[in-house]
Amino acid sequence: MTSPTPQQPQGTHQQHSRQPHPPEPRDPKKSPESRDPAPQQDPAPQQEAREPSPAPYEETRIERAIGRGFARVSSHAMAPYQTAVIRIGFAATWLLFLLREWPNRQDLYGPDNPWDLDMARRLFDGNHAFSVLPWSDGNAWFECVYLLAIVSSALLMLGWRTRTMSVLFMIGVLSLQNRSIFVGDGGDNVIHLMSMYLVLTRCGQVWSLDARRAKRAAAAAREAESGTAADAAPDAVARPARDLPGVILWAVLGLGLAVAQLLGNYGLTWFENGPFPHIGWGLTLWFLWVTHGVWWWVQRHAPGEPRIVLDTLAKLAHNAALLVIVVEVCLIYATAGWYKIQGSRWQDGTAVFYPMHLDYFSPWPALSDALGSNGLMVMIITYGTVMVQVAFPFTLFNRRLKNVLLVAMICEHLSIAFLLGLPFFSLAMIAADAVFLPTNFLTWLSARISELRDRLFSRRGPHAGAEGPAGGEPEARTQSGDGGHTLVG
Fold first, then answer.
1. Which of 44, 70, 101, 252 is the most buried (most CB within 10 A)?
2. Residue 148 — very low, low, confident or very high, per pLDDT cuts 50/70/90?
3. Out of 96-110, 179-193, 412-426, 448-462, which region has the weakest mean confidence (pLDDT)?
4. What is the DSSP string of 126-176?
5. SS3 for 235?
6. 304 phi and psi, to 5 degrees?
7. What local confidence, expressed as pLDDT, does residue 473 receive?
8. What's the pTM?
9. Separation between Cα atoms, residue 321 and residue 78, nearest integer Å
10. What angle do CA 101, 104, 110 make, to 5 degrees?
11. Residue 80's pLDDT is what?
12. pLDDT value of position 217
């Protein structure tokens, strides 16, 4: 005789009542009364064990979007072609300006400047601007700084040691522009800001001597691996070649910074009056110098996780600086457009007429008179300028409309360069606008230039360009998850 099956409670454990319990073993030594006890409940651990396992966690749409976004910004440095154009554009603009003003350099930034060095030091004490020119009153020091600015601009434009040259380019721009704040036409402010942003970008990925050198080193490493033992790991990372010029350059710059720090030169503070709150220029420059050395050591001696971590941090810094550049350009156009709206001459459509009839802004008087005498054309240019500048930040998410307005703004700056005689302002703004150029257009332009170069200067025959895009640039994106539809092209 078996004991009756206990009744399970209704509710959450109803599904367990459908499963019969296994019969209890009979003990012949027990009486029927002892073998008929009261119904017993199953132990709690058995109930818990029989409960169904929780369903796997499913990410929401927002969480998946955030995850994809973080993977995107940390996996690769975005917009390599756009940052290369920015690097070339701003370096070329500053280089051309320095070369044009070479005969007047003493009057603009040197000892013959009416704003003498003592007055500049008083200004620096108030605005805490950085410049290396106050370190010495001698003319030799000024000439050395001016030549350094020219050389660093040329090498940055060519893409030779872009990480180091971007720092030297920034020092040259800040030193000369802060020395004489009354020299400039508006484009100097854009160059001033972009010179600091370029330090954080990986602007030498394409169209640079660094990219060409990296491409040749990778090709040599592949040939060396193919010629070694066949049982080598396919994913093994070859040690980079010894970079003696880079080591010498790094050591010389570190020695020069140490001497300047020991002499107590102006501006090399540790925790004040720097590019960031509570971070001085001395600490910033030393941090950049140490970071470059650590990067070289990790690339050569730590090919595992340390290299991956540093590479990810560099990509995050690049993408963050690229975002700042995009926002900066949008703010420039938005503020310029809204300020124009408040002006009465812009409201009645006659603002463009007046600068065309100023001798100082009329390099081509006949052309200015012919254009300024057409009232309809003046009104179209005036209202069109305001509408394009105000509307551009709102068109970034519409790729086709953004490209149309981008062409209109570039044409506007070209007209300013020719009609008003402000070439360097126009070049600086066109270089800033280049961050929005489509990637497909830039890769197409690169291919056309490479073909033209191979036809004119190649000595390796008709198959010279078979190795891929020139300058170590990555292949053009034809189909991928990105699709080329981003804010920066």
1. 101
2. very high
3. 448-462
4. HH----SGGG--SHHHHHHHHHHHHHHHHHHHHTSSHHHHHHHHHHHHHHH
5. coil
6. -90, -125
7. 52
8. 0.80
9. 11
10. 110
11. 93
12. 84
